[in-house]
Every structure is written in C-alpha cells, then in structure tokens.
Amino acid sequence: MNENSRKNGFEFDGRVRYSEIDHRGTMTLPALVNYFQDCTTFHSESVGLGMERLREEKKAWVLSYWQVIVERYPKLNEKITVGTFPTAFKGLFGNRNMYMLDAEGKRIACANSIWVFMDLEKGRPARPCAEHIEPYGIGEPLDMPYEDRKIEPPAESRDGEPFPVRRYHIDTNEHVNNCQYVQMAMEMLPGDISVHQLRVDYKKSAVLGDMIFPKVSEEAERTVVELCDEAGKPYAVVEMK
C-alpha cells in the first residue's frame, strides 16, 4: 500500500478486491464507505492522533453525519486512490472531505462529513485542544453539491422486521460501526437498486444486545430508513438515492 501523508491530508492506493464486489462485479457501497472510513483512520494514525493515543486520553472523533456521492462504482482489480482532508474545525465539530480516484486521477466518489469530538469518560462532546486539530491541517472544500444535514423522512412509512445488534456489528468503541448502519439500511431497499447518493445522520450509538426497529419510507427518487430503538427514537437515519 502506497501512502502519502500530506500537509493538509492523507492518501493511499488500493485495488478493488473480490471480497469488495457484488454480483455486478463492481465495488459495493459498504466497501466504498469503509475505504473512506479507513482513510480517515490512517490519516489520524499518520499525524500521531491514532486510536491508541486517543484511547489513553479517553477521547475520540465520532462520525455524526456524512453525505457520500458515487459517480460510478469501480470494477474488480481496478486501481484506486483514496484521500481525505479536514475542511474546517469549529467548536466541538470538525468537517472532513473524502474522495476516491481512478488510475487516471478522475474522481469516482466523494464525501462530506461532520465529526464531533467526544469525552468518552464523561460520555459527552468536548472541545478539542489545538494539539487535536493542528496536525491535520485544513484543505479547500471539494467541488460537490453539499446537502443539508437534516434528513426529512417522508410522511408515510412501514415497519421493518426488528433485529438484534450482533457481535460483528461492533467496533473498537463497543458501538455499532458506522458502516454497519449503512449495511442494515441497504437490506431494506426494494429490489436491486444502485445507490448514487447516501446520507446518514447518526443520532446515538447502538450497542451489543440492543434491538433495532427499522422504519422504511419509499419515494420515487429516494428511500429513507430510520433505524430506531424500541421507543421509536432513531440510532441513525439513512437516506439512499
């Protein structure tokens, strides 16, 4: 893996694996989302703000929202470059762009995301110090259509079959991993649909043993899946177009 840690960001090269494709022979949406998530992790590790360092401080950057636009899904064995950089830090929050390029440097996919800095010991957001921000640098935001964070579900919805949070859903923070919510929501899609824009608003963390109660709303251009607790309060709201 070739890595390039730049002043204002991080890139790494990859190749689309068989384990990352679907029946079409192209990368799945969850695989693409995982590339973006992994790239942000690699960036943090490269600037000395990795998982172990923040764990010692009982702090973490937690994904709060993202908008992912897929211009095309890369094919098996295709060479790709994945990159990320912060675009702003304000108060408790950090904004970050991600991108995926093909071998010719043409953009395949891009994303905008909002992260909140958490005090894990107190279980609430905290203002990051300069040492948690400055090593990342700041880049110019990507040229992409930025949508509002708030996802408005359609008025009509149907209840999906409830299911439990399982061990394979859980990450190092002992919460359901960001990508697993996307995978859960995709299971609710009607038929064989290719998603070209994904938005996820993460509301609260589900943990092992929780039950997920899905609410599914379908419109001509989009499907919205609310992944809720027993009281109907969402862990995450997922919109797929």
Structural class: mainly beta
Overall shape: globular
**Uncertain spans:** none
What is the overall pLDDT average?
94
State the oligomer.
Answer: single chain
- Round the Cα radius of gyration to an integer and report it: 18 Å
Helix content: 10-25%
For the sheet with most strands, the description reads: 13 strands, antiparallel
Order of helices and strands: EEHHEEEEEEEHEEEE
How far do the termini sit from each other?
32 Å
- In total, the number of strands is 13
Number of helices: 3
Task: Give the SSE layout.
Blueprint: E1 3-6, E2 9-15, H1 29-46, H2 51-57, E3 59-70, E4 79-90, E5 93-101, E6 107-119, E7 124-125, E8 158-159, E9 163-164, H3 178-186, E10 197-202, E11 211-218, E12 223-228, E13 234-240
Antiparallel strand pairs: 1-2, 2-4, 3-6, 3-10, 4-5, 5-6, 6-7, 8-11, 9-11, 10-13, 11-12, 12-13
Keywords:
13-stranded antiparallel sheet; 3 helices; 241 residues; mainly beta
Write structural notes for this entry.
The chain has 241 residues and is mainly β. The chain contains 3 helices and 13 strands. Strands 1, 2, 3, 4, 5, 6, 7, 8, 9, 10, 11, 12 and 13 form a 13-stranded antiparallel beta sheet that branches. Helix 1 packs antiparallel against helix 3.
Summarize the structure.
This protein has 241 residues and is mainly beta. The protein has helices at 29-46, 51-57, 178-186, and strands spanning 3-6, 9-15, 59-70, 79-90, 93-101, 107-119, 124-125, 158-159, 163-164, 197-202, 211-218, 223-228, 234-240.
